[in-house]
Every structure is written in structure tokens, then in C-alpha cells.
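Weekly modeling sync, notes
Attendees: AB, CL, MP (scribe)

Item 1: holo prediction request
CL wants a bound-state model with zinc ion before deciding which constructs to order. AB pointed out that an apo prediction alone won't tell us much about the pocket. Agreed to run with the ligand included and paste results into these notes for async review.

Input as submitted:
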Amino acid sequence: MDILLNYLDDKAFNSLYTHLPAQLLPTFSDPTNPIRQFVSLYIMAFIGVHLVYFIPSTLSYIFLFDKELEKHPKFLKNQIRKEIWLSVKSFPLLSLVTILWFFGEVRGYSKLYHNVSDYGWPYFIFSILFFIAFTDCGVYWIHRFEHHPSMYWWLHKQHHTWKVSTPFASFAFHPLDGYFQSIPYHVFVYLFPFNSWAYLIAFVLIQMWTVSIHDGAYFTSHPWINSSAHHSVHHLEFNYNYGQYFTLWDRIGGSYRRPTEMFENDMFWDRGTQKKEREEEEKVEVEVNGKVVHEKEGMKLRKGGAVAKAE
Ligand SMILES: [Zn+2]
Ligand SMILES: [Zn+2]
């Protein structure tokens, strides 16, 4: 993120900070000052996360999302508003924990490099493929671990509020859930040399991918690509298809489920099967978590028996 920070220093921060009170100027007039870098990175990440959330999600909602899905029996009342609110609520903390990695990059602790010629084109291409493979594996196992009963209730359950998701569910997580699933992307550039520009572009593309698996637009039915159809199965049945880009790790981990069974035979839309489906879901929930949590509109039962108002 150093290239983006340098760009924003030139275009915004250098002039913005001249308006600060005189006692802060010694700190904020030096672009290499760590306190100034930390503050600038926070502003950058906080604004940036709103942009990479709202722009792709809104475009996807307008042009790709099948509005018929809003009539699905499992689509919640005011769901989009709830998805957006959960996302926006998570951004202050998500930005804070994320910039710890960005701060290390700016201070020179990562292996990011600027010029392709530093390592050559063959390595550049290899590093991109390796980045995809590494993060695909990392996200799978972190996501799967988040479904462990010790993690699921407090960390990941919020994202499973959405049985039929919209593009606005792409960031609708507990802040630490979104953060944990992003760790492989950050760790990679501390372990392996990676081009700074590729890294910056990757962040935008990853977010577009995350929107795409929540938008219900089934652009491919390729069995090896973890498409929106696969991720819809995850949201509906929750212990299948934990993957991010590909279905490889679901196949290896024994959690792969082809979405066609559910979508092609129209079970997805058949209200008559809702009860049966719910019973099956509950059976799986008992197997995985040892208990079933019943949700009612406006209220939810939390583990331990405490009843709390739904956010
Ligand atoms: Zn999801
Ligand atoms: Zn999940």
C-alpha cells in the first residue's frame, strides 16, 4: 500500500495537514513520520473500504442481481438495509486492524517490490498464480475453522444471517470475521516477493469477486469454480462450499456440494419443501454445533440462553 500512500501524500495529505494546529505540524509535515503514516493509512483504509464496498455492490445490485430473489421466503425483511448496516458498522475496526499490515509494508517490512524487472516477468506471472493458490487455500481453512462451534457463534454467525444473499452481503461480517478471512492476502506479501501494483489491483479484484459470489448471478456452472451458485449453497446449508475462488479445497476437505442438485430441480423455489429443508438444516446444525438456534424476527437466541435484540 506504499504506492497508494505516496500518491495520496502528493494529492491530498501534504496540503491537508498544513491546516492542522501548529503543535502538530512537526509530526504531520514529515511524510516519513510513523504517526503521520499511521493516521494517513487509517484515513486511506477507512475511505477505501467504503469505496470498494459500495461501488461494486451497488453496480452489481443494479445490473446483475436478480430482484426476484427478494421474494424468496428466506429473504429477510429490510435485508439490504441490514446487510449495509452490518458492513458499515464493521469498517472502523476492520480498517484499524488491517492497517497494522499496511503500516508494516510502508515501513519496509514486507516483500512488496515496485518494478517487474526486479524479479522478471516469469516470476511476476508465477507470483500471481501462487498468490491465488495460496489465498484460496488460506481462506478455505480459515472459513472452515470459523464454522467450528468455538468460533461460529461469536464470529461468523452474523454473515449467515443472510440465507439468500445480495451483493451488499459481501462485507456484511463481524469486523474480525472479515479481517481473519483477509489474513492470507496480507501474510503472502510478508513471505514472498510480490509486485506492489499487482497487490493494489488484487484488492479491488478480490472485492469484486466477493461481491460476485453473493449476487446470485450464476455466471458459470463450471464445477471447479466457486461461483455464486456454490456460495448460495453455503449460505443456505452452511457446512458445504467454504471455498473462495475454486472448489479444489472443498473437494479435498470433503465439503463440496454441487449446486445443481438444489437449483436445477427447483427445490430452491419450492415453498412446499421449506419445512423439510429446515428439518434437514437443523439436523446438520445439531451434528456440527451440538444444538439448534431458532431465530425469530427481531429477536435471536444466543448461545448460553441469553436473549438479545437483533442488530
Ligand atoms: Zn458469504
Ligand atoms: Zn460460512
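Recorded for review: DSSP finds twelve helices and five strands in the chain.
Action items: CL to compare against the apo run; MP to circulate these notes.
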